[in-house]
Amino acid sequence: MKLGLLLISLMIFTGCSTRGNPNLVHFDENQSWIMKSLLAHYQKWRGARYELGGLSKSGVDCSGFVYMTFLRRFNLELPRTTLNQIRAGVKIAKSDLQTGDLVFFKTKPSVRHVGIYLDNDKFMHASSSRGVMISSLQNSYWKKRYWFSKHIPELDEL
User: Catalytic pick from 16, 26, 41, 113?
Assistant: First the structure.
């Protein structure tokens, strides 16, 4: 069983970086069930191309990926759009991020982006240029555009 988890983690994170960032999220058996569930979902969706309004592995946008992740993995129905996901949950400080929290970015004056925080400054999201992937909050692109984070209290009740 331990070997199987190790192999899955290696498959998930081999080559996952943003713009050459070599930092990887480490998967081990001591991580929370929320993290394990998120990583399993990522494994299935990794590389799915970006499509505005999409909700499937053949094409998904950032809020659709968040929506599908919470629905499929936690049976929680978040709002479908980034604008409405911004209104969900409880605002938290970046220093208080926990696995499963939502991270929001301002990528252009009127464009917002959302992802799901994993751990160690990593988050998974549907990138418009690279599809479903894992990125670092420390990456210069995301660091400059970070807006705020939200905690979804319903996750605590599962």
Answer: 113
